[in-house]
Amino acid sequence: MFSQENKKEYDYIKNYYQFVYEANYNYEIGNDTLAYNLLKKAESNCPLLNQENIYEVNILARLSMKLNKEKETFNYIELLLKKFGYSFFYFDNDSIYNGLKNKSRWKKLKRNSKKIFEKYKSTVNVELRNEIKLIVAKDQEIRHRENINWEEVDSIDRIHEERIKVIIKEFGYPDDDLIGSYTIGATNELNPNIGTLIMHFKDVNYWKPIFLDLIRKGKALANIYGNLVDSIQRNGSYFIYGIYNNVQPNKIMDFDRIDERRIAVGLSTWDLQQKMYEIVKKKYNF
């Protein structure tokens, strides 16, 4: 497990994301063995991420349990606790793990879980986390007023964009390693994810090489490049990456080559995006 950790460079675009996207789809439709094998392939290529809206390490923990791989299940639970800030309460209240709850390793993890969580929290840049939460909150607040002042919105967007430039130069992309996952705060705490904020950036040519490099290295959300570019295209005629589920192929530039473009920037194929959207709609009844 995690045999690739000693490598210096990883290409997540080439060797990771597509395996995880396919695994996530197969997991959702009940193809457990195929989903597991695809995730293990991704893991053999690059250190595991735990991407928002996929949570592949969590999927691996559950699949390992379903496939009677006890040691692996514990390994993934421990990884989620130590690296991704999960609370032991999450696992203790999931019936899928009932078969482990009398095991000595389970009891040890439960006994040490508070220390593990506090150690994880000690690595989080709390000051930066709080600043980003305020930025994200302001970004949304100005867009949900009864009377929106678009000149003010534009001005604040530019201030936020310049601040994020400084943050990324100084600290790197504000991911879970830097500012912690949403799970470390109160249940009603605003998610400090800057993904939506990025869709309001204007300096596309500045960000494109930076985002592509971060995505390739697995250091940022894999959808930020496509989201940035297509969000700018909202006022134009055609989209480039087809990130919006309500956009038809005739509104996408050179649609025959869309998968080539999407895969090159870390996105799933168009067809897989549509399939996952239908699954999510059915799952959450919207």
Describe this structure in words.
The protein is mainly alpha-helical. The chain folds into three domains: 12-122, Serine Threonine Protein Phosphatase 5, Tetratricopeptide repeat, CATH 1.25.40; 124-202, no CATH class; 203-286, no CATH class. The chain contains 15 helices and no strands. The protein has helices at residues 12-15, 17-28, 32-45, 56-66, 70-82, 88-92, 104-122, 126-141, 150-171, 176-179, 195-198, 204-216, 224-232, 258-264, 270-284. α3 (32-45) crosses α4 (56-66). It is globular. The mean pLDDT is 93.
Biggest sheet record: none
Radius of gyration from the CA trace? 20 Å
What is the first-to-last residue Cα distance? 38 Å
Please tally the β strands and state the result.
Answer: 0
CATH class placement of the largest domain:
Mainly Alpha
Secondary structure class reads mainly alpha
CATH architecture of the largest domain: Alpha Horseshoe
Amount of helix = 55-70%
Query: What is the element string, with H for helices and E for strands?
Result: HHHHHHHHHHHHHHH
Quaternary state of this entry equals single chain
Total helical segments: 15
Q: What's the rounded overall pLDDT mean?
A: 93
